[in-house]
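COMPLEX REQUEST
Ligand: 0O2
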Amino acid sequence: MIEDWQHFLLPYQQAVNELKVKLRGMRKQFQDQKQHSPIEFVTGRVKPVDSIKEKMVRRHVQEDRLERDMQDIAGLRIMCQFVEDIYKVVDLLRQRSDMTILEERDYVTNVKPSGYRSYHIVIEYPVQLVTGEKRILAEIQVRTLAMNFWATIEHSLNYKYQGAFPEELSARLQRAAAAAFKLDNEMSEIREEIKEAQTLFSNRNSSGQVSDSATSKERD
Ligand code: 0O2
Ligand code: 0O2
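STATUS: Structure written out below.
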């Protein structure tokens, strides 16, 4: 029995904190180069203990297998503007020497029956502890803003209905997923135009001619 969950989760919290800094640093570097960043923003969390326990029961994970069999105790999310950016981010992650990719699940191309889309990467990440190095698993979900919008809404509805959606709601969620897919396609079509406009805007910003946008603090 894990008695001290706080102790168990400490390396995971450290990994999430470190990875958030590193992934947000990638965005900063693109901005510094006055280039379009394939990363729009990054979030991360350690799975709450109650969710870990619930998933252990649902997936029949024994406690002695928890560290290996539950891959998303440390979870990071990378949001992108365009579908193409997702694959750019995945390539960038593949090139890094500070993490090892163990698995990739492409739900962007292979959409889940629910309508869920995202690119999932499971990594092994070394955390430096005072007791030595510990290699933990973490899951990085890479998705567009539209995919994130849909997944966030669907996830909260799932809490309410435990996956058993009324038929009407289920049909609406399917239509919403299709609309998000269409939005991503439309944005991809005008991607070069948007990127050019954004580069122009950020150049003017950095030379101080135009005031900061309302959301930039949040994203940086
Ligand atoms: P809930 O109920 O899940 O919405 P910061 O101050 O920005 O450095 P902070 O305050 O920890 O750090 O927040 P951050 O990193 O911006 O975002 C935390 C949120 O990210 C969580 O919300 C999760 O919703 C979401 N999140 C990020 N990655 C994952 C993931 O891999 N899986 C899941 N399930 N969620 C993720 P809350 O606040 O924990 O609450
Ligand atoms: P959380 O923290 O509540 O998000 P499984 O868990 O059985 O679906 P597996 O093999 O563990 O499958 O991993 P998978 O499918 O690669 O990724 C699971 C995670 O992807 C989920 O975490 C969700 O964050 C996300 N996800 C997968 N399918 C859906 C979906 O249909 N809708 C939404 N909104 N998110 C989905 P958890 O475990 O649910 O935890």
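REMARKS: The longest helix spans residues 5-32. The pocket of 0O2 (ligand 1) is lined by residues 20, 43-45, 72, 75-77, 139, 141 (CB under 6 Å).
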